[in-house]
Please model this.
Amino acid sequence: EYEEKTGRAHRPLSPKQNVRKNLDFEPLSTTALILEDRPANLPAKPAEEAQKHRQQYEEMVVQAKKRELKEAQKRKKQLEERCKLEDSIGNAVLTWNNEILPNWETMCCSRKVRELWWQGIPPSVRGKVWSLAIGNELNITHELYDICLARAKEKWRSLSTGGAEVEGEDAGFSAADREASLELIKLDISRTFPNLCIFQQGGPYHDTLHSILGAYTCYRPDVGYVQGMSFIAAVLILNLDTADAFIAFSNLLNKPCQMAFFRVDHGLMLTYFAAFEVFFEENLPKLFAHFKKNNLTPDIYLIDWIFTLYSKSLPLDLACRVWDVFCRDGEEFLFRTALGMLKLFEDILTKMDFIHIAQFLTKLPEDLPSEEFFASIAAIQMQSRNKKWAQVKRMLIFDNR
Model:
């Protein structure tokens, strides 16, 4: 009727459309295809075939119900685990806030606190615990941070306008060096946790990260900015206020291990690698021999892990748990974590050659199982011939002299 009124020509149906029009039914699903009788223009199904299709349908229903039940059980288990974890975190927060933090000096080294620490610090109190554990040996104040930041901003302005003023304490560092350092900061900020997008240009923490790194280059011009620092500063920013993050950052980088790596003290770095290999051979002799056979030295994978304190190599939540215990145990835990990693993947690594081992360790799996990883770390013994980490390191330093 519409076509007649509008004067449009009536198009004849195609052969395909003709066939579809003549069908007595339209199958709605696979179930329909199995159960429905054949159209009137086709021979009826034999009784055996109809029975077979009925059985197939019933089997499909049974399998579907099984899958549904399995999924429901999985969801229930996940919900129970999440509720259990939330209860555990809630109880831990109360313990940290009401018992441990108010009595930090007397309780921080107790067995109860150390055990609670190993399980992971609740995110809401993590920043406070890290600040207390890292300490402030440098006696940096909020005012000092403001001064360093103001000087950094002045230098940025000076460099952007082509100024060549050099202050007395910076006289040993050329304008080109300072400019390169500041340019490197800009470049690295955009590469810091790119998946989070919060540190990129326009993100909520971009300027904060830029400020802390810039202020540090003014506070320690002898160290300047080194790649990897942005990840450490970013993790601290996520857990602390800006000035407190700067204080923790500066004190953390002032620790012997971090200073050795960030100032590229080759002799001391080699000492750390040698100490690591002592415990590597002690804990994982088979893998140690395999690495030696393939000429795979610790610097190939350890440098990146140590420079960023695992924050670049591990998922962020897992890296924060490593930081928790690192704040408790110090530099030793960084190398214990490395051995735990090697132990976790020992079976895989022993079957690989140099290239594949290097690729695997510089790009770790993203779905690392948290509990298995920490169980692997716990299995590592940081004692060699009755000597602990610090003693082994001291012996190696003495031997090198």
The longest strand covers residues 383-384. Confidence is low (pLDDT under 50) at residues 15-28, 164-171. Strands lie at 383-384, 387-388.
